[in-house]
Design a protein that fits this description.
- There is one protein chain.
- The longest helix is centred in the C-terminal third of the chain and has 17 residues.
- The chain folds into 3 domains: about 120 residues, NAD(P)-binding Rossmann-like Domain (Rossmann fold, 3-Layer(aba) Sandwich); about 120 residues, Rossmann fold (3-Layer(aba) Sandwich); about 90 residues, Regulator of K+ conductance, C-terminal domain (Alpha-Beta Plaits, 2-Layer Sandwich), CATH 3.30.70.
- The protein has about 450 residues and is α/β, with parallel strands linked by helices.
- It is about 35% helix and about 25% strand.
């Protein structure tokens, strides 16, 4: 597919890297020549210098013949204008990055008027992910599928856990809970396990099932924790606003610490139920005065990765139960994995994953099954995909034990109307089902791609 990306910042660069890695033809437009030079030297892309909202620049970039235009600059208005121009020039699909909360209420109207195929709000998507973790703090990560009917949850097996030394086939026999362990991370290696795989303390495992089953599983193995009642947010940017608004709607006590006085005044006006403190969230005396040691959770959302990590480590040292940090540079995954922090959130990665899912669905719009949901797990080494089965194909109606699937792949869940099936060998995929696949194979665009 021919994809034009306007803006080569954090989000635009991440999208370009992922889509070029999947074999698409990528052209990036940006005003900054140095940034474009670096992008061309590190990725298989073409660059065009100039204003991405300009008709002349878009024509130079081939927008009239593009399958998709993605506008991901830091300015919402530029993104919307770029998409409007692109649509008028003939781009088949357009996606705009829109972050301003003031535009949120009118986003449906904007999509219709501007002809947008999709909007992405990295900060709001990241805030929603953090909210899920605060509601279910036992988990390290939570990925929803089938509109929330099924969740894929990551947890770490603690020392002296009942799971230590247990083969996967014994989990249901021992606990009578219908969950499926679909990925295991151990000492830098990733496994898509079979029934004979034996778990060990220290493993990070990904488990899929409906939420209630996962909660029962966590209770049974002794790691369940109730949702948080109070949260301290360091940094008062857009993500903090979206997160605070969500938490307040759940009757969670929210305290925001922000250095900029004008931003504090804005947050006080927009979030009257929250406590907003003007101060430095990295000052440990201020954190103590504001009750860090008595809060259930701390979320570090400043613009500096280093500050977020240091504050988060300090909070864990003070025995805060749930600590989450925003990270922009996730390339140092080995270091992050070894830090005593409960979770890391990368807004740019979340936005890029949403767009990659859309592109895969576009690519296979005439196929028998489309990618409905896409989540990348374990530092992008594993993908979990939800396919909607729309018509007959080689995988339909065949018992799973008879399907010759690729190595490193697991049919994790089948959703049939309101029924959630943790599949066994005698189950089969039928038309109308939603199917969740967990795999180390990348670039699956259709369910039949699971076959050898």
């Amino acid at each position: 597919m021919n994809v034009v990306i306007v803006g080569d910042g954090k989000v635009g660069g991440t999208i370009a890297r992922q889509l070029s890695g999947e074999g698409h033809d990528i052209i990036v437009i940006d005003n900054n020549a140095a940034v474009l030079t670096n992008a061309v030297n590190t990725m298989d892309i073409i660059s065009v210098e100039g204003n991405g909202a300009s008709v002349a620049v878009q024509k130079r970039a081939g927008v009239p013949h593009a399958d998709l235009l993605i506008a991901a600059t830091s300015a919402d208005e530029v993104n919307m204008l770029a998409c409007l121009v692109g649509k008028k020039l003939g781009a088949r699909h357009t996606i705009a990055r829109v972050r301003n909360p003031e535009y949120l209420e009118q986003i449906t109207m904007l999509k219709d008027e501007l002809g947008l195929s999709m909007t992405v709000n990295p900060e709001m998507a990241a805030a929603e992910e953090i909210s899920r973790l605060l509601r279910f703090p036992s988990a390290l990560k939570i990925e929803p599928f089938a509109r929330g009917k099924v969740e894929l949850v990551e947890l770490k097996i603690p020392e002296h856990s009942v799971l230590n030394g247990m083969p996967l086939w014994a989990i249901y026999k021992e606990f009578q809970v219908k969950v499926l362990v679909c990925a295991v991370q151990r000492e830098g290696n990733v496994y898509i396990p079979g029934g004979d795989f034996v778990l060990q303390a220290g493993d990070k495992i990904n488990v899929t099932a409906p939420h209630l089953e996962i909660a029962n599983f966590f209770r049974t193995i002794g790691i369940f924790r109730n949702s948080v009642k109070s949260v301290m947010i360091i940094g008062g940017g857009r993500m903090a606003y979206y997160l605070a608004k969500e938490m307040l709607s759940l009757r969670v006590r929210v305290k925001i610490i922000e250095m900029d006085m004008k931003r504090c005044e804005y947050l006080c006006e927009m979030l009257p139920e929250a406590v907003v403190i003007h101060g430095d969230g990295t000052d440990k005396e201020l954190l103590y005065e504001e009750g860090l040691e008595k809060t259930d959770a701390l979320v570090a959302l400043t613009g500096m990765d280093e500050e977020n990590i240091v504050v988060s480590l300090y909070a864990k040292a003070k025995k805060v139960s749930k600590v989450i940090a925003k990270i922009n540079r996730i390339s140092f995954d080995e270091i992050l994995d070894n830090l005593d922090i409960d979770g890391f959130i990368s807004p740019k990665t979340i936005a890029a994953n949403n767009i990659v899912r859309y592109v895969r669905a576009m690519k296979n719009s005439v196929g028998s099954s489309n990618v409905e949901t896409l989540h990348r797990l374990i530092n992008d080494r594993v993908e979990a995909l939800e396919f909607k089965v729309r018509e007959a194909s080689p995988v339909v109606g065949v018992p799973l034990k008879n399907l010759k699937t690729k190595d490193g792949l697991l049919v994790a869940t089948i959703i049939r109307k309101t029924k959630v099936i943790i599949p066994g060998g005698n189950d089969s995929i039928e038309i109308g089902d939603s199917v969740i696949i967990v795999t180390t194979n990348k670039r699956l665009t259709d369910l039949k791609d699971i076959l050898k």
